[in-house]
Amino acid sequence: MSNFFQLKENKTTVKTEILAGITTFLATMYIIVVNPGIISHSGMPFSGILTATVLVSAFSSIMMGIYAKNPIVIAPGMGLNAFFTYSVVKGMEVEWTIALGAVFWSGIIFIILSVFNIRTEIVKAIPKQIRFAVAAGIGIFITLIGFTDAGFIIHDPSTLLSMGPLNSITLTFLAGLAVTAILVALRVKGAIIIGIVTTTLISIPIGRWYGDASTIVDSITLVNWNGFFAMPDFSVFFKLKLIESIQLAIWPVIFAFLFTDLFDSISTFIGVAEAAQLYDTEGEPRNIKQSLIVDAVSTTISGLFGSSSGTSYIESATGIEEGGRSGLTAVVAGLLFLPFMFLSPILSIVPTIATAPALVIVGAFMMRPVTRINWTRMDDAIPAFLALTLIPLTYNITIGIIWGLLSWTIIKLVMGHKAAVTPMLIIIDIFAILALIIG
């Protein structure tokens, strides 16, 4: 195992990788119930999507660990599931079985693009200043997710955002954040996972002894405890309509999935790789071709199993900050998904306020690359700043990288710095504009 995952070369150990895998799983396990919660609005059965979500997440993450040897979890993507449900099925009135077929065919196209290194060349064409900005932007984005999950930051009609009330929920979150921050500052091994467990334990009395647990945003809480077991449901497996989904009328849907997933997966992968310093000898993201192939396969099997597209998860950064550096982290996280084909109700033990402190702390970790942005040169700084700020402000990683790249291209060309704009970057810009039009 040590040789296969190159643990010595990655300066890590089996114990560290297991802890990192558990941490990553705890930060991403919400997708098991959140994904079916969103996609079920398309008319698909909740339990069937849950089973598909577990299997896609497990298989894709294990494949990422074994084949690409990167500590990155892949699961059905947030945003992509909303696009599947509300834009395609409900908005375009596409039957969900046909929409699954469109997901499948977009995955096939991705596999072709990945095998022939086209997606790899796309990643290499993205300027490093934009990569640094995307990593930092994702850090702020993750932090915002953590604060909003805890109800510490809320929507305000007057100011857009505001601090939420200090109640049992937010005070428990702050206590968990303080514990996690202190442990991290003391460099305690397993600090993030200890913080998650601690926050979970101190949140148990909420709704029982004091406070109102129903105000926890998007959380399956202990108040809704329904026992340990739930049998898997394979009712959506292989329900996609392959022939109907390649009809001319569905091509725009396939390309909509293609563009959306393309920028989502690449921007997330670059951000996580940049923040974790997962480079190869040429300074590019490590094992990028293999990672993008796994990402493409994940999208393909998502269509087969009954879910929206799979993609790399920004929450992988939690395990990476716990010390995970090899594919063993992803394998451990992937294996932890499998029992929840039967044990999904147990997820109610860990509310969102327990993982929220971890997300805030990881956001701080991911700000490191911002110091590598050339702030003294405005033709570098402005595009980087747009990418960095638009990711959290639009709540969309893809939007940030698109406007960062478009502004980079325009400014560099106007200033006569043509060498900074490669032919591949021009092609990416065209696809970015198409993605904006479709979106």
Task: Give your account of this protein's structure.
Helices cover 61% and strands 3% of the residues. The chain is mainly alpha-helical and 439 residues long. It folds into 2 domains: 14-227 and 236-367, no CATH class; 369-438, no CATH class. It starts with 13 loop residues before the first helix and ends with a helix. Mean pLDDT is 85; it is low at 217-225.
Describe this protein with a few key phrases.
mainly alpha; 4 strands; 2 domains; 439 residues
Spatial order of the strands in the main sheet?
Answer: 1-4
The N- and C-terminal alpha carbons lie at a distance of 44 Å
| Low-confidence spans | 217-225
**How many DSSP helices?**
17
Would you spell out the secondary-structure blueprint of this structure?
Blueprint: H1 14-28, H2 31-39, H3 46-68, E1 74-76, H4 80-91, H5 96-115, H6 118-125, H7 128-149, E2 153-156, E3 160-163, H8 168-185, H9 191-203, H10 251-276, H11 288-305, E4 310-312, H12 316-321, H13 327-337, H14 352-365, H15 378-394, H16 397-414, H17 423-438
Antiparallel strand pairs: 1-4, 2-3
Could you provide a short overview of the structure?
This protein is mainly alpha-helical. The protein is built from 17 helices and four strands.
